[in-house]
Specification:
By secondary structure, the protein is mostly helical. The chain has a single domain, classed as Up-down Bundle (Glycerol uptake facilitator protein). It is built from 8 helices and no strands. Helix 5 runs antiparallel to helix 6. It starts with a helix and ends in a 6-residue tail after the last helix.
Length: about 230
């Protein structure tokens, strides 16, 4: 059982991210349909930031709480995780994301056709290249913070979850109008599978993974204590 704990943790953490993050979009839609004010971009951003911070504190000591294929790939290219383990991490994340998406479909059936269960999508008039660039930048910042606070042993202990949650909140705030602020292929994948909405889906794999790799390599070579000189 000990061998499977990291994978279970990754699935649960990603499930929570989808259920709360995409769920906040669904809840916002339902509230507006019923004449309410809705959560708005700020409310959705706070929900995402808080659930990520909570999962980092709750599960970080078990798996590192990547809950993001882009982060896992960054760990792999910097030799912080073995290739086979990285594959199982990503598979676990996608399973958790899909489970979260389908559960939202049960709870918010009215949000399937309308907001596609909270799947991240490009804003009106946004091109594929603009979407990829935005996802690259905000994921770059996310992974940079992960490496600086959760990986680097010189950082103050106990602040990683807070810092990662804040950068997620900021990423959704800034990226929301452009791409929905995914920063995570699993964040787009889970609701997309459950709703059948895959329009411009490639944006949410290419941008975050390239951004994560760039951040990991930069930190490893420029800032890490054991960098090559």
């Amino acid at each position: 059982m000990d061998n499977y704990r990291p994978y279970i943790a990754e699935a649960l953490g990603t499930f929570a991210l989808i259920f709360v993050g995409a769920g906040a979009v669904c809840a916002d839609h339902v509230l507006r349909q019923n004449g309410g004010a809705g959560l708005g971009l700020l409310g959705i951003s706070i929900a995402v930031g808080l659930v990520v911070a909570t999962m980092v504190y709750a599960l970080g000591y078990i798996s590192g709480c990547h809950i993001n294929p882009a982060a896992t790939v960054a760990f792999w290219v910097t030799n912080r995780i073995e290739a086979n383990k990285a594959v199982f991490f990503i598979a676990s994340q996608l399973v958790g994301a899909v489970a979260g998406g389908y559960l939202l479909g049960i709870l918010f059936p009215q949000a399937i056709a309308s907001v596609h269960l909270g799947v991240t999508s490009l804003g009106k008039g946004v091109t594929l290249s603009q979407g990829i660039l935005m996802e690259f930048i905000i994921t770059f910042l996310l992974v940079l913070v992960i490496f600086a606070t959760a990986v680097d042993q010189r950082s103050p202990r106990g602040f990683a979850g807070l810092a990662i949650g804040i950068v997620m909140l900021i990423g959704v705030m800034v990226g929301g109008p452009i791409t929905g602020g995914s920063m995570n292929p699993a964040r787009a994948f889970g609701p997309a599978v459950a709703s059948g909405f895959f329009v411009n889906h490639l944006v949410y794999w290419v941008g975050p993974i390239l951004g994560g790799i760039a951040a990991g390599l930069l930190y490893d070579n420029a800032f890490a204590e054991n960098r090559k000189r």
